[in-house]
Amino acid sequence: MNIIRAKDYEEMSRRAADILAAQIILKPDCVLGLATGSTPLGVYARLIDRYNRGDLDFSRVSTVNLDEYRGLPAENEQSYRYFMDHRLFRHINIRQDHTFVPDGMEPDGALACQTYEEIIRGLGGIDLQLLGLGNNGHIGFNEPGPIFEKETHPVDLSESTIQANARFFEQIGQVPTQAYTMGIGTILKARKILIIVSGSGKADIVARAFRGPVTPQVPASILQMHPDVTLVADEEALADLPL
Ligand code: F6R
Q: Could you give the CA distance from residue 34 to residue 128 in angstroms, rounded to a whole number?
């Protein structure tokens, strides 16, 4: 695994944006796997800057997001579709019909997930998957559990994830308890993986994920088995990871 040590959140964001930009320049019709949450916000802001400067062209890029809450429509400000539209897509020249997020409003979970797998397959797979890291080691919404789930699947969010996501909602009771997420197998099929982590609160889980045993109790630990992973993290997040 390639580890890039950044001084702080700003540098982490800049370096990760460099890697995504390089991917788009080298393969203008690439398929990017994207993440939501707090960590990628700086990366998306930098990609928008580069687009505004005329340095990046998204017109042939396709994107597939990792996950979506079940039951939230695209217009809901907390849906991941809304997040992506407002934090990235509306500010760049990507075609809206080239952007994919699992359909959280499809009540038939099996159908929603199978359709999403077919979309990813139809695009020819993911060239570069951007990931954040959950406090409990989750990637996408693959929560700690007895097995690594392979394909896109419905998931019950763990209590710690519901608590962590409560900051985006007015009341904890409004936080959805279920989501559709790409599976670990789907993520591992990405040709390249870029995982970004920031802050001292993640130092312990970074060490467990990247230096501990590979176990579904720490879903991100499976990334140790992928041939092309780059971890871009700031000093605080890397504090417990021996050099
Ligand atoms: C988001 C996602 C999650 C987040 C993770 C970290 O699409 O799949 O796995 O990446 O929960 O979230 P933040 O960045 O908010 O700490």
A: 9
